[in-house]
Write a structure and sequence with these properties.
heterodimer; A: 2 domains; 3-stranded antiparallel sheet; 10 helices; B: mainly alpha
């Protein structure tokens, strides 16, 4: 009985996708566009489609064009017309899905500045607000309780467990004795990534956006770490950078070692950016691809499709569990690498080491 | 490869949002939590140390009190033992004394009895002597009333003297 109920539940949850299947009916299922539509940024937040009715939240488009100056309008204008004030959403080429305008030669070009509140931007805002509320709530608990009251329970207890884990396992051993100065930043990074990853796994509205799988987001985070490393690096760090302890022929005529060191400094944020972005993007893509198996096989034969539904749902559940793990591990790894880089920028004085 | 090109707008908004989040949490969020957690950790460590010390002290006190109780018990036993021996000794002394007293009294009594008896004997002897003298007197007076008998008597006396002399020889 219970098993039947579960199967029914799964089938019902698949209903929205049935519409999607019909939608791209004639030409077969376009898996590529389904996946890309999800993992890429967009100017409206598409929630679901019931039959031919698309339910989506229109988001504001803010652009600065050399032609018209600042422009701000809702993305819903494109529902009925293709062009609005000379702007349109490109359907092909490098700028596919982005807002473009036509230059004097009739080519599609991007506006000078595109500060639109896209799906990812709005997700970032929502997750930021959630994160601030959660952490302030936890902090309020600590402010209101004395130490003698003992450890927190429930949600605050879970948060304390995570915070203590990050502090003791990542920050303290990697950053060194200065850890209190950097702990708030590293904890913010950890919880921001963790929350975004988890929310990205939720299939409906506030979640479901591919935030940490977007290179701009991870680049922003990596830039913050880059700043933390290089602004707060101490004298020893900069000495090691420009005048390392190597035979002088390695640095005097041709600054070979300083060059390599500088290269390392620039590569570090890239490593952070690509690692997080690629992991999350791949996770989302694989889950979607496995779900799409259902619709591909449905087109070939309904019976095979029915059987494949079961297999595909099993795989999706497995992938989601895996992604849950990845969500945590990637947040952990990003924080750990950031702490290691920060720790490397705070070398203790040589005399102390020996 | 549009995936690999970061959007300027998104980058800007992300930096802004993350910056604000970081600022708020840096100001009001994490330092409070971290300091409280660390403080509590120290407090727990302290409490554990104190509890351990208290336990140790308690154990020492218990040991001490046990020692005292044991000592008291030993003392009690010793006192009881002493009392027992003393009692025995006192009883023995009393018995000895009573014995010697009794013996002394017995001796005294015996001596007094002896004396009494000697006195009585002497008394009896003198009375017997007197009586026999008076009896002898009476008898003699009675017997010597006639001449014949006087003669006989004198002869008998002489005989007896002779016998005595002969026996002496």
């Amino acid at each position: 009985m219970r098993c039947l109920r579960y199967i029914l539940l799964v089938l019902i949850s698949l209903l929205p996708f049935a519409g999607m299947c019909k939608e791209s009916g004639q030409g077969g299922v376009d898996v590529r566009s389904i996946i890309f539509e999800h993992v890429k940024d967009s100017y409206e937040w598409h929630i679901t489609a019931i039959g031919d009715n698309h339910i989506s939240i229109p988001l504001p488009i803010i652009v600065y064009s050399s032609r018209t100056g600042w422009e701000c309008f809702s993305s819903s204008v494109f529902h009925h017309q293709e062009e609005y004030k000379g702007f349109r959403i490109s359907t092909s080429g490098d700028n596919e899905g982005k807002i473009v305008e036509l230059d004097s030669f009739g080519n599609e070009v991007r506006p000078v500045l595109d500060l639109s509140l896209t799906k990812t931007v709005v997700s970032v805002f929502i997750y930021s607000i959630m994160l601030v509320l959660i952490v302030l709530y936890v902090a309020r608990w600590y402010r209101r309780h004395r130490i003698e009251d003992g450890a927190p329970k429930g949600f605050v207890g879970v948060m304390e467990m995570l915070i203590t884990m990050v502090l003791d396992d990542i920050i303290k051993p990697n950053v060194g004795k200065n850890y209190l100065k950097f702990a708030p930043y590293l904890l913010t990074v950890f919880f921001f990534i963790f929350l975004s990853n988890i929310m990205g796994l939720l299939p409906i509205f506030p979640g479901g956006a591919n935030v940490t799988g977007n290179i701009a987001v991870t680049l922003a985070l990596a830039l913050c770490t880059f700043i933390a490393v290089n602004v707060f690096g101490n004298k020893e760090y900069y000495k090691e950078l420009f005048w390392p302890d190597v035979p002088s022929w390695l640095k005097v005529p041709v600054p070979l070692m300083p060059f390599i060191e500088l290269f390392g400094v620039i590569v570090k944020p890239f490593a952070l950016t690509i690692r997080l972005f690629a992991n999350i993007l791949a996770g989302h893509t694989v889950v979607l691809a496995i779900v799409c198996i259902i619709f591909i096989t449905m087109e070939v034969d309904t019976r095979i499709g029915g059987a494949m539904t079961f297999v595909s749902v099993l795989f999706t559940i497995f992938m989601n569990c895996l992604e849950l793990l990845v969500a945590f591990i990637q947040a952990f790894v990003f924080t750990m690498l950031s702490s290691v880089f920060i720790g490397l920028s705070q070398p203790e004085h040589k005399a102390k080491k020996h | 490869m549009s995936f690999l090109v970061p959007d300027t707008g998104l980058l800007f908004w992300m930096l802004l949002a993350f910056g604000i989040v970081f600022f708020i949490l840096y100001k009001y969020g994490f330092p409070v939590i971290i300091s409280k957690i660390e403080e509590r950790k120290r407090y727990i460590d302290d409490s554990l140390k104190k509890a351990k010390e208290a336990n140790k002290r308690f154990a020492a006190a218990e040991h001490k009190s046990n020692l005292i109780i044991e000592n008291a018990r030993e003392e009690e036993a010793r006192i009881l033992r002493e009392a027992a021996t003393m009692r025995k000794q006192i009883i023995k002394e009393a018995q000895d004394k009573a014995e010697s007293e009794r013996e002394k009294m017995l001796l005294e009594t015996k001596r007094m009895i002896q004396q009494e008896r000697e006195a009585a004997m002497r008394d009896i002897r003198s009375q017997v002597a007197e009586l026999s003298l008076s009896v002898a007197e009476t008898i003699l007076r009675d017997e010597l009333s006639d001449e014949k008998r006087q003669k006989e008597y004198a002869e008998r006396l002489l005989d007896s003297i002779d016998v005595e002399k002969a026996s002496e020889k």
